[in-house]
Structure formats: structure tokens, C-alpha cells
Amino acid sequence: MSQIVLNDITKRYADGFEAVKDMNLEIQDGEFMILVGPSGCGKSTALRMIAGLEDISGGELRIGDDVVNQLAPKDRDIAMVFQNYALYPHMTVRENMAFPLKLAGVDKETIDSKVGEAARILDLDQHLDRKPANLSGGQRQRVAMGRAIVRDPKAFLMDEPLSNLDAKLRVQMRTEVARIQNELGTTTVYVTHDQTEAMTLGDRVAVMRAGVLQQVGSPAELYSDPVNLFVAGFIGSPAMNFMPAQLDGDTAKLPIGEVSLSPEARAGAGGGGGRQVIAGLRPESFEDAALVGEARSRGTTFRAKIDLVESMGSELYAYFSTEGGIESEELAELAADSGMEETPTSGQHTVVARLDAASKVKRGEEAELWVDSTTLHLFDPSSGRSLAQA
Amino acid sequence: MQHRPREYAFWSIGMLIVLLFALLPVIWIVMVSLKPPNQITTGPGISFSDAFFPQDITFKNYETLFEGGIDQSPFIKPLINSIGIALITTLVAIVLASFAAYAIARLNFPGKTLILAGALAIAMFPAISTVGPLFDMWRSIGLYDTWPGLIIPYLTFSLPLAIYTLVAFFREIPWDLEQAAQVDGATPFQAFRKVIVPLAAPGVFTAAILVFIFAWNDFLFAISLTSSDASRTVPASLAFFTGESQFTQPTGNIMAAAAIVTVPIIIFVLIFQRRIVAGLTAGAVKG
Predict the structure, then answer these.
(1) Scanning every residue of chain B, which has its alpha carbon at the shortest distance from the alpha carbon of A136?
(2) Tens of pLDDT, residues A50-102
(3) Do B135 and B15 reside in the same domain of the chain?
(4) Is residue B285 scored above 70 in pLDDT?
(5) CA angle, B231 as apex, B226 and B237 as ends, to 5°?
(6) Structural domain range at position B177
(7) Chain B contact for A80 (CB, 8 A cutoff)
(8) Which of A98, A246, A353, B14 has the smallest C-beta neighbourhood within 10 Å, fewest atoms?
(9) Is A52 in contact with B183 (Cβ distance < 8 A)?
(10) Nearest Cβ partner for B183 among A79, A89, A104
């Protein structure tokens, strides 16, 4: 158990491509750190550099008190769980889990007790003498975890360990992973592209994009104070709605209507009259105007034609369109990652609102909605930076 | 899939024909080897079954092969030579080829394609054109009529074969397994020996069988680069068998020897074939 420090870590390939650029990250002892980002953002490369499977082109990596840049994976005392589990197919579950201990020259009794303990934690007792080929996906995943935890390493590295499981099992294993990490208190670096996983699992989350670390913070911080458009759009499901806005003194003119700015937002925006910005509103910032009580004064009501209503039981997702899209490289990348770029929008922009289940909005009908203006996020259209951070 | 009776019959007949075609010569060799000398050549007017099956079964042909012990027998020394040379060739070829194939499958180094292309070129090189120079070279450096004198050319021609087979098998093994082993604390060599080799076993055995059969069956080098029982292998020694008198052909003895030399091949294949099971890497990785 120890902390991991990345100091200006860079990965440059032979062809000059930089997969990770000057990454600085301090992972505390016992912390559960999530690296999250769309595919190709360099999160796996960063993890593999920590593991030693990938050479570090520049910067300094410390595990505990030692600089480990030049150490082979076996000398770094870390354990890794691979996306495809990478179990040794010619060994039984017991042998798989005992393998790292055997290599370390641990005596047989200790091996037996440690494997037994790991099997108990992971509920694998009955499967110890089976081969990986005869196990289900979830069981294989647990064996891979077991192989990591028997050794009591300085850190666990997990490379999208749940992405090969089906949806239901994934949720189940997610709590399992959190429980095990909590029980063992081992420093963990966990790579995923799934922001839900990132939000639910991590003590802290590091969002990456194109090799650059965007923001590091607790899930709540990332959610409420994203530093830029990318983080704002990536974190949260359904994603934040973006629309063009024109600042005018105390108000911002949005396609859905005029919204008064909170004092903080006004301070961040610098009061520049007539300035074009990008406004971001989370789906839960909206509500059916009929269901809003005294909070009504905090926001603005507007009318919109509802295109589609999805009922989740506990809440409703109402979709409506606004005029005027926005051009942003970061948002385009997010759209590409989620496969949205193919959807024809014809100059219109779809907004998702999360409404109370009691709402009576109907598909195809006009409804009066309310938006909480205190939750408005404003971003600089050219740099993408949040104006609240200025 | 359902096998309908007609389909089943069709495949059965097909396999029977192929089996007969392949095995008939072998059966014939065994039949002839069991005949006494006077029945080996038969005149016209004899039915097929009388000509094919021995009228009086005798093991005399086999006995004469081993008569006189190791010094006198025309067969024991060559048999030992054959087994020794083929096994050593197989062992050396597999060890060298697995190292080479592993490097080719896993590493990026300059000249990788050159090595593969060179191996292929050697494999396609006609063996007969190397025999003359080898004969001269071996005589001047003292390798003529020795075991190494045969093992070296066998390696030349079997290594490319083994490397190609093994590269294909090594490429099938997921990279992640090796990296997992390294993270688990294995040195690169331990990762190779404890994870990759066991998984590549089917490939290793396939290559071993191919190399063994090549070395075992070779006649060209064996007849050209040997001059005595010191290193002459069975295929070459068959040509030196003598009959009871100078007017009798040693056909029966040759057939008996031919029947015996097929046995090690069959044993070799039967042992290793059990290891060549498909899907050994099943369950390693998802997908």
C-alpha cells in the first residue's frame, strides 16, 4: 500500500504521436482513483505505464517512495486486472491465483491459506479446481481479481475490468469491486470509459481527453463544477444540455428564453454585455412548471413542444428541440464517442429534461417547463473553459 | 446439425476409400514381409487372395534382420542411428525454432521479415543441390559418416518448417497472458516457460511430429553423406541388404524392415496427437 505519483508523465510513440501529455496526478495511499475518458484518450496507456507494460517517454513515476520508471513490471509490486481477464487457461482457478505467490517463492502453506482467503472473499471456494474455460464471465472476472488480491501488492491496476460483463452482472460486480477495495484498503487505479462506473466507484475521478488530463476531483465536484465543456458533457447521464447564450447584464438569452444569472455566474462572466457563451443545463435543472412550488422564483418558465417522453417509473425524460446548435470541437468529440454524430439534427438541438414522475406532459403537446437558473453553467465558446472557474 | 443416414453413408464410404488408398501399400508390405521367400514372387494363374495373403505365415524375415546381434545384424545399428538422429534433430530444432518463433511473433526488430523470408527460401531450396557441396565439405572437415553430419543438414531444412508452424501458433496466444504473467512477477523467461510454452504445446508437438517425420524418412542425405553403419539410417541401409545368395533378392527382409520403421512413427504420432487438442487456450480471455 502506498501512494502513486505521476510527474509530467508523457508517452510518445515512435511516429511522434503523444498518447499521454504531461500528466500530473497524485494518487493517495488507499485511494480509489478512476481514470475515465472516451476511447483513445490515453487512459489505458497511462495505466500501462504505471504497470510497466509501456515505456515512459518522459516524466517521473513514483510508487511509494521509489522512482520506478526503469523497473520491470515484476519489480514494481503491483497487480493488474485485465479487461479480458487474461487467465492462464492451462491452470486451475487455484493455480491461477497461486501463480504470483509461487513466482515470489512463498512457501506452500502460506499460498494455500492466502488463496483460500481470497477465494472466500470472492466466493470462489467451490470453483478452485476448475479450469477457466468452464467458468462463467463473472466467475472469470472474480478469478482475475483473486489473482490480484492474493499478493497484497502496493496497488491494484484495473483496466476496464467490467466491460466484458453483461449489464446486470456489471452492476453487481461494481459493488463487489467497491466492497473489496474498501475491505483491503489498497491503492487502486481503475480505468473505464463508462462515466457511471467512474461516478459510483471512485474516491476521486480523473477525466482525460486526447492524452490530456482535464480535471481531477470527487464525483460530486466533477458533476457540480466541471472545468470545461468536455467534462461537463462527459459526466452525467443523460448528458448536460448545451445551447448558445448571449449575456446581457444580469441575464442570459437562451433559445428557451431569458434566464437571470446567479451572482456567481455573473462574477465569472465578467458582466460583458452582448458576449456569446455556451450555456449548459443538466436535465434535472428542468421541471414541469405545474409541479414547482416556491422555488419558482429561482428560475424561468418557458413553453416547449415535447417531442418524446420516456418514463423511467421514478422520473420522466422529456425531449424537446431548440433552435440553434453550437459548434465545439469538444462536444463533437463527445458526440462521436457516444455514436450521436450519425443522428440527423437538421439545425435543431434536442434538449433532455428530467421531470417528476407526476408530470402530465404528453408527447407531441406543448408544455410549460421551468428551469432552475441557479444551476446554469456558462462556458467560453472558444476555449471551452467554464466561466465559473475564471 | 442432424446427420441424415444418406449423408452418414456418403461420408463413411468416402473415408473408407481414402483409408484404403492410404493404407493398402502398408498392408501389402506387412503381407509380403510375412511370406517365405518362395512365395514372394508368384506366377500367373493364382487368385488375388492367394497372391495377396501369405499362404504360410513366417517370421523368418524379421528374425534375420536381428540375427547376429548388434555387430552382425544389418538392421539394428541403422535402427539405432535412425532413432538417435531423428530424436536429436527434433529436440534441437524445436528448442531453436521456439525461441526464434517467439521472437518473431512477439517482438519488433529490424530484419524480422528478412528472417522469415530467408527461412522460407531455405525451405524451398532443392535439397539435392546441397548434397554435392556438403559431401565435399563434410569429408574435409571430418563430418562425413557421422551423426552430426546428418543432423546439421536435417536442421537446415526442418528449422524453417518448425519456425513457420510455431510462429502461427504463438501468434494465436493472447499477448495479455504474457503481460499478466509479467505483472504477476515473472521474468520474461519465466513468462515464456510457464505460460507461453504450455499454451503453445499443441503447436510444439505439431512441429515436433513434422520435424521427426522429415528426419526419419530422409533418404537423400542418408545415402549421400554416410558410408558405413556408423551413421547410416534405416532408409539408406535397406538398399544394402543382401539376399541368402547373390541370386536372391532380399525382398522379404526389406519388407520386414519397412514394416518395422513405420512403427516408431505411428507411436510418435499417437503419443503427441493426444496433446494436439484444439481449444487449449479456451477460457483465457473473453471474446
Answers:
(1) B283
(2) 999 889 998 999 998 889 998 888 888 899 998 888 899 889 999 999 999 99
(3) no
(4) no
(5) 70
(6) 68-281
(7) yes
(8) B14
(9) yes
(10) A79
